[in-house]
Amino acid sequence: MQYPASVPKHIDLSLYQNIPEVFDEAVSKFSNKKAFTNFSTSLTYSELSRKVDQFTSFLQHELKLKKGDRIAIQMPNLLQYPIVLFAALKAGLVVVNTNPLYTAHEMKHQFKDSGAKAIVILKNYAHLLEGIIKETAIESVIVTEIGDLLSFPKNLIINFAIKYVKKMVPSYNLPHAYEFNQALEIGALTDSQKIEVNHEDLAFLQYTGGTTGVSKGAMLTHRNMIANMLQIANWMAPQLKVGEEVAMTPLPLYHIFSLTVNCFSFMRYGAENILITNPKDIPAFIKDLRS
User: Fold this and answer.
1) What pLDDT does residue 3 have?
2) Among 33, 93, 260, 278, which is least packed by CB within 10 angstroms?
3) Host domain of residue 243
4) Is residue 1 part of a domain?
5) How many domains does the chain have?
6) Do 203 and 222 touch, CB atoms closer than 8 A?
């Protein structure tokens, strides 16, 4: 078995110095096209970029995070995820993707091992964080709800149903936590600062599944991720219609496959990523497929 003869054997790593350059290029090329959609609410590339800049500013000016600091993201596929992801990378931070199904014990291990100083977490899991946060280096917490970025009145209906009808948000006490939309508002008050990020700078501590022992953080640089994107492009580009593709994304973005292929590679070609928050909800999944 081998690749078709038309697939280039080499990639040009000089095309990009860091992941934010890939993001900015996509925003420039596809500004008015849909970038991510969740529960039928969409963000265009330009809208996403604006919110990314706001959250970058929040991380830099409000939380005082510096290049190389670790930030954990613990949520399913939501519009909030790419905002936090690209903001963190623009700020030169190291992203620690965290499985939202983790137990408190697993969370504690990952946060202590990574040295995470901040976390953006879905409120559904905040009670678990409360129990272990004092044993970690986490200083700043941003909480969010599933409906926070959805259109009105869907945002209110979904957040109300999840909290009060389905009772999926146990009570917690994190007194200094920021609300996600509050963070965007704070970030909008000041401009973000451009951070120099190069190939060898760390982009992710991507934790393994822990099937052979404790979960371990794989160190992934910006060069690693760019190489993956370009490798995928060499193989897939001839089949892609630039600016027209729609990618269903039921695999979680905190997983390396979905992160690399859906979030990064399809974004580079101006695709719309339809984020599936709960792929086990088959009727809702089918509705998204038909829409």
Assistant:
1) 76
2) 278
3) 13-290
4) no
5) 1
6) yes
